[in-house]
Amino acid sequence: MTKRFAVGIFEDEDVLLNAVENIRAAGVKIYDVFSPYPVHGIDDALGIERSRLPIAAFFFGMTGLAFALWLQIYMLGFDWPMIIGGKPHIALPAFIPVAFELTVFFTCHGMAITFFTIQGLYPRPKVPVMDVRATDDKFVMAIELDETSSQFSRLTQLLRENGASEVNQKEMTNN
């Protein structure tokens, strides 16, 4: 499916932040903003909600901790019982290093997999790029266009009034 975008190029991040607020206040929905480095405050300006990834991390960590404790209790208490140094089969202080390692392991891998899945960052043949200058020194704002042809001229004027140095129309195909 091919989508059309109005792509505004900005020279400065402060101008971009003001433009995002003004354009959203004008009732225009911004598709995304691309920048060469993270811009402080851009998430709030775009109205992006706070991520729930820390909640997922907590549950991945608890899963890792439960798995580590179950694994050690099962192996040392039932599957292959051994008495080491006179300790009982379930010696929790001795389980702490393995429990810590598996908690961190499950948390890291679970968060990475969740992040890549939610963001759609998976290997694909062609990665869409709005403007390659966003990887160098420019800031790019993309606004999805509908089928009407007059919308682009209106958005061009709006982007120029808010400090865009250049406005282009791009077509992108979803893979």
TrEMBL record:
It comes from the Bacteria. It comes from Hymenobacter sedentarius. Keywords: Membrane, Transmembrane, Transmembrane helix. This is Quinol:cytochrome C oxidoreductase. Signal peptide: none annotated. The keyword Heme does not apply. PANTHER family: LIPOPROTEIN-RELATED, QUINOL:CYTOCHROME C OXIDOREDUCTASE MEMBRANE PROTEIN. The keyword Transmembrane helix applies. The chain crosses the membrane at residues 55-74, 94-118.
